[in-house]
Amino acid sequence: MKAFWLIAGVVAALFALFAPLVLDRGTLNDIWNLALAVVLASAWNLLGGFAGQVSLGYSAFLGIGAYTTVLLSLRGTNPFLTLPLGAVLAAVFSLIIGLPAFRLRGPYFTIATIGVSEAVRVSASSVSFTGGSSGLRMPAGSFDFNVNYFSMIGLAILVVALAAYVKRSAFGRALAAIKQDVDAAEAVGVNSTQFKLAAHAVSAAIVAIAGSLYAINFQYIAPGSVFDFRLSLSIVLMPIIGGVGTVVGPVLGALIFSTLQIKLLSIPALRDSFLFIYGGLLIVTMLYEPAGLVGVGRRLARSLAGAR
Amino acid sequence: MQQLISVVLNSLLAAGLYATMAYGLAVIYGVMRIINLAHAGLMMLGAYVTLTLFSRFSIDPFVALIIVGPLFFLFGVLLYGAVGKRIVRSGATPSMESLLLLFGVWLVLQNLAYVIWTGDTQSILTSYTMKSVEIAGVRVGVPSLLVFLASAASLIFLHVLLKSTYLGKAIRAVTQNRDAALLSGVNADRISATAFGLGTAFAGIAGGMLSTLMAFTPDFGRSFLLKAFCIIVLGGMESITGVAIGALVLAALENGLAAYTSIPTSFQDAVSFALFFVALVAFPQGVPSLVTRFQRRAIIR
Fold first, then answer.
1. In this complex, which of B35, B93, B267 lies closest to A105 when CB atoms are compared?
2. A112 interfaces chain B, CB cutoff of 8 Å
3. Which residues of chain A are within 8 Å of residue B45 when distances are taken between CB atoms?
4. Would you kindly state where each structural domain of chain A is located, as residue ranges?
């Protein structure tokens, strides 16, 4: 099973890297969106999946990355040089939130993150430097399709590889211990707060880089788009539907999510209500298979093995 | 002085609505240890049902509440049968699965509303929407006064229900100690269904009342959900008095900040969300626990 996913991943990565030779712009844009989804889902999964800390506030990090890039680019910096700064700012912000919030457990943590992200969104819409509700535009001539395409694909490959590495590392095992039982993990010497903070900071930094690339790609951002609650939602839904806490799950979730998104957004009647489908998927997942698609796959594999 | 009266009066009026809004969450949390994220969707639905009753059948929104309450109670019981039953109460803290499940319910409700009522901003305009009366020298809008009276009525109804019926006693018993309640023969499944219905009914009523005060879209409800959380956290999660205290604290803070500081109103929500965060982290047992803690300290001395 592991070998299969490894080969599938390498094939997919190679396909994405060589796609610009054969495919048209529209399809490449879809692949770009898929890569963005993979990055967001896998990054969220580092904290939400591996450590079991479900955060509904990830749009804040995406927004921090996007705004760092746009604001500095407007002052003449090369957009790609702003990526590390956005990542650092988001990581710092994740620590500021995480220090108090990680005192809370389970659902209380989740609700606190909704509060934080809403506070960030409301504040961002009412201060002037974010462009208020009318948003900000990137300076003209800062867009190069190829650079933009390959940076997102590269980021996606790196993040999935990082997730696979973390899962096997001592760090990943500590996170898994925290997920299973915080008290037991503490008792055997895992400093749970430190590990949670570290996972939070790493995933926040990755999401901020994705946010910078988002700003470069769309050339326009507003608090209503990058700090949108629906964005936080999508980030959470993908790994959960795919299979929380696994390396493959978030990628599968992202694949389904972005394919559905493209299909659904082309139907005018569903443009506002596409989350209906995801809400339904979430209910079904939670009721019948909380381990997501990966869980369904495991069941199938088991029953196939049993039939033999 | 005039300003102080105005702040006190407005806080009191807002607190009534806030308490109704928050009680729905508190009763479900108390009985089932579930954080009902679908609450926001149910409030939104309450607003739209009230709107439909008003525009189709020209029923006054405050009369409509009498229909909305029982209707939502039924809906809540059905919802419990459909998804709530599956939620196993796992010990003292709510499970992540139940949170995400109800989150899914919220998404479905919200997007169902987009399909049925579209995303256009709606509002209810009655003959008295713009009218106001003068109380102690302060002008108060008639709708907010009516909202306060309706909230007070529903909270009194709730108080009587909880204090003097078997059902109410059973709900309080399960809230205090589920295992002991089960041992003394309380039917936990039925009580959970009733509590879920009650919570849903209160969400619907709160939504209906909100629809007379402001314009709304299917996305509406989220900021009120957070306010409701803030209130039950401030109030110590369970008791009805706690909810009332929490509602008063939040309303007084919001109105006080608006009147005495230069923080723009657009920041008001950010302030209450920040308060919510601080409250959750600093005193998760709520304001009542702070009081008992101080009392204990005083006794020790």
1. B93
2. yes
3. none
4. 2-307
State residue A250's pLDDT score: 92
Q: Residue A77 is which amino acid?
A: T
Residue A51 to chain B, least CA–CA distance (Å): 13
The pLDDT score that the predictor gives to residue A209 is 95
Determine the pLDDT at residue A207. Answer: 95
Domain extents in chain B = 2-300
Residue A271: predicted pLDDT: 67
Task: For residue B224, list chain A residues with Cβ-Cβ distance below 8 A.
Answer: none
ipTM confidence: 0.79
Q: How far apart are CA B190 and CA B262, in angstroms?
A: 50
State residue B298's pLDDT score. Answer: 62
Q: Which residues neighbour B198 within 8 Å (Cβ) at sequence distance 6 or greater? A: B24, B27, B73, B76, B158, B171
Among A105-109, A195-199, B244-248, the range scoring the smallest mean pLDDT is A105-109
CATH of region B2-300, choose from 1.10.3470, 3.30.70, 3.30.420, 1.25.40: 1.10.3470
| Cross-chain residue pair B280–A275, CB shorter than 8 Å | no
pLDDT tens readout for residues A172-227? 999 999 988 888 888 888 888 999 999 999 999 999 999 999 998 888 888 888 88
As a whole number of angstroms, the distance between CA A80 and CA A109 comes to 34
The proportion of chain A whose per-residue pLDDT surpasses 70, expressed as a percent, equals 97
Looking at beta carbons, which residues of chain A come within 8 Å of B281? 100-101, 103-104, 112
Summarised one tens digit per residue, pLDDT across range A140-157 is: 776 778 888 899 999 999
Quote the tokens at residue A173: 């095992």
Neighboring chain B residues of A273 at a CB cutoff of 8 Å: 111-112, 114-115
> Would the CB atoms of B267 and A101 count as touching at under 8 Å?
no
* Cα nearest neighbour of B279 on chain A: A112
The minimum CA-CA distance between B105 and chain A, rounded to whole Å, is 6
Find the CB nearest A273 among B106, B114, B267: B114
Question: How many other C-beta atoms are found inside a 10 Å radius of the C-beta of residue A234?
Answer: 24
* Residue A267 in contact with partner chain B when CB distance is under 8 A: no
Q: Among B95, B270, B284, select the one facing A123 at the smallest CB separation.
A: B270
What is residue B299's predicted lDDT score, i.e. its pLDDT?
60
Compute the nearest-CA separation of A121 from chain B (Å). Answer: 8
Chain B residues lying within 8 Å of A130, measured CB to CB: none
Tokens of B247: 């509602």
Residue A185: count of CB within 10 angstroms of its CB: 21
Q: Are B240 and B159 in contact (CB under 8 A)?
A: yes
Count contacts between A and B (CB, < 8 Å). Answer: 126
Q: Is A132 left (phi over 0), alpha (psi -120 to 50) or beta?
A: left
Scanning the structure block, which residue is given the tokens 């680019």?
Answer: A73
> What proportion of chain B, given as a percentage, has pLDDT over 70?
89
A269 touches chain B (CB under 8 A): yes
pLDDT value for A201: 95
Query: What is the third-level CATH fold of A2-307?
Result: ABC transporter involved in vitamin B12 uptake, BtuC (1.10.3470)
